[in-house]
Amino acid sequence: MTQIETMIAAARACAGTPFHHQGRVAGVGLDCIGLIVVAMQAAGLPVRDRLDYGRRPDGASLVAALEDHGMKRVTGEIKAGDVLLFRYDHQPQHVALATSADTMIHAFAVAGRVVETGIGAYWRRRLVGVYRD
After folding, report:
1. What DSSP line would sit under 29-90, residue for residue?
2. Which of 10, 19, 32, 62 is 20 to 30 A from 54 in CA distance terms?
3. 54 has pLDDT over 90
4. Rounded to an integer, what distance in angstroms lies between the CA atom of residue 26 and that of residue 82?
């Protein structure tokens, strides 16, 4: 299994995990960043995790954290394994893991849990960055 397949499988295994701000435990509680951390760790990737963010993370800090992990912002079509960065209000504040060009998995506070959803018009309007290793 490739690293991307491992990340996606680990994230999917978290489906239904309750949303919990700064959560990092699959099956117990995860936030959007925590889900990415769990997926990366499952794939054996190094993670420098931080818990010094509020309920609405600073967008610049999210971008810096992605770049700090060696991810590069890319243009073009979304691919499985990409980390997607979305804005609320006026800055990036949410991340998800693409499971295909049209679907993603994320710990979504509104849903109250980790869910796999389509990347429809609602999310595409808010997409501000696609990051790839």
Report:
1. EE-HHHHHHHHHHHTT----------SS--HHHHHHHHHHTT-EEE-SS--TTPEEEEEETT
2. 10
3. no
4. 20
Give this prediction's pTM.
Answer: 0.92
- pLDDT band (50, 70, 90) for residue 46: confident
Q: Rounded CA gap, 104 and 11, in Å? A: 10
CA distance 6 to 29: 20
pLDDT for the residue numbered 34: 92
Which listed CATH number (3.40.50.80, 3.10.270.10, 3.90.1720.10, 3.10.310.10) goes with 3-132? 3.90.1720.10
How far is Cα of residue 48 from the mean position of the Cα atoms in its chain? 15
Name the one residue in this structure whose structure tokens are 């994320």.
106
Eight-state DSSP code of residue 125? H
Question: Which pLDDT band, with edges at 50, 70 and 90, does 90 fall under?
Answer: confident
